[in-house]
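Ops channel
N.P.: pipeline sanity check, posting one input/output pair.
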C-alpha cells in the first residue's frame, strides 16, 4: 500500500474495530435493556459466571478495564443486588467480587442472549468463531506489544 493510502479512514484497522464494536453494541442494547444492564455490566457478569469470587484486579485484567472505570461499574451492579464486594481477610488491599443468589439466577434468564445476538447478524457460526479466534490472537499480540506502556 502506498504511504498516502495508509492515511485514509477506510484503511485504518482501528476504525474498522471501532465501527464494528459500535454496531455490535447496538445489537446488544435491546437484548440487555429488559434486564436493566449495560453491555459493560453484562460482560462483568459473564466473567463472574465463569469464575465467581475473584478480585477487582483479576476482573479488571480480564475485561481490560482500570480500577477507575471498574469501581463505579461494580458499585452500580452491587446496588442492583447482583454482586457483593468484600475486603479479602488475608490481604485487605484486595477486594473480592462475588455473585449474590440473584446474580447467579440471572445467568439462566440471560442464557439465550448470545444466540439471539448471533441470529441478528445473519453471520454463520463458523465465521463468528473464526473471526473471534483471529481477533483474540491479534489482541494477544497487541497486549504483548503494549505491556508496560501504562
Amino acid at each position: 500500500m502506498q504511504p498516502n493510502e495508509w492515511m485514509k479512514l477506510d484503511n485504518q484497522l482501528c476504525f474498522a474495530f471501532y465501527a464494528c464494536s459500535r454496531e455490535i453494541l447496538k445489537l446488544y442494547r435491546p437484548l440487555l435493556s429488559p434486564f436493566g444492564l449495560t453491555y459493560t455490566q453484562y460482560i462483568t457478569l459473564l466473567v463472574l459466571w465463569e469464575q465467581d469470587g475473584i478480585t477487582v484486579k483479576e476482573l479488571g485484567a480480564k475485561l481490560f478495564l482500570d480500577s477507575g472505570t471498574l469501581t463505579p461499574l461494580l458499585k452500580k451492579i452491587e446496588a442492583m443486588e447482583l454482586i457483593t464486594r468484600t475486603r479479602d481477610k488475608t490481604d485487605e488491599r484486595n477486594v473480592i467480587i462475588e455473585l449474590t443468589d440473584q446474580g447467579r439466577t440471572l445467568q439462566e434468564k440471560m442464557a439465550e442472549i448470545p444466540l439471539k445476538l448471533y441470529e441478528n447478524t445473519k453471520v454463520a457460526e463458523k465465521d463468528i468463531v473464526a473471526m473471534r479466534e483471529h481477533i483474540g490472537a491479534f489482541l494477544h499480540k497487541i497486549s504483548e506489544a503494549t505491556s508496560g506502556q501504562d
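N.P.: looks fine end to end. The mean pLDDT is 94.
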